[in-house]
Write a structure and sequence with these properties.
With 147 residues, the protein is mainly β. The chain is built from 1 helix and 10 strands. The protein has a single domain, classed as Immunoglobulin-like (Sandwich). Bound molecules: copper (II) ion. The site of copper (II) ion has 5 residues, from strand 8.
């Protein structure tokens, strides 16, 4: 091996060595089964759901959701005397190694200020889920019809 070849080999070796640091930690959250409820024309809001898994050894939280609607909030549902009421929650905790489900009748993402044309099954809503650790995860929510 001549000197130039040796230098190139060394350079290739460096390039192929994984760098320590944040890259190794990147996948801490898995988002699965995202969907948004189809709504007819005239509806002012709809809800989105997903399952969020935290594979990290520290707790995390969903702190906000960004999407192309006038307002997007995180809501939960409470029931009193048989009446279900939605209320805003500042964040959704996700335990270390835990799974939190946003689902009908419970935690959900509220997409508000719809333009009145409705949202139909087959459409897709794009949103960015923002977490307490700074991670921002783009998610495509397919729209599903419900009875
Ligand atoms: Cu709501």
């Amino acid at each position: 091996m001549n000197r130039l070849t040796a230098k190139i080999s060394l350079a290739v070796l460096y390039m192929c060595t994984p760098l320590p640091g944040p890259a190794a930690e990147e996948v801490e959250l898995n988002i699965s089964d995202p969907w948004v409820r189809a709504v007819p024309g005239g509806a002012k809001a709809t809800a989105g759901y997903a399952t969020i898994e935290n594979t990290a050894i520290r707790a995390n939280a969903l702190v906000s959701v960004e999407a192309d609607f006038p307002r997007v909030m995180i809501h939960n549902v409470k029931r009193e005397d048989g009446v279900a009421t939605m209320f805003h929650v500042p964040e959704v905790a996700i335990e270390a190694g835990g799974i939190t489900k946003l689902k009908p009748g419970g935690l959900h993402i509220m997409f508000m200020g719809l333009d009145g044309t409705g949202i139909s099954a087959g459409e897709t809503i794009e949103a960015i889920l923002v977490f307490r650790n700074g991670e921002e995860i783009p998610v495509r929510f397919p729209v599903r019809a419900t009875q």
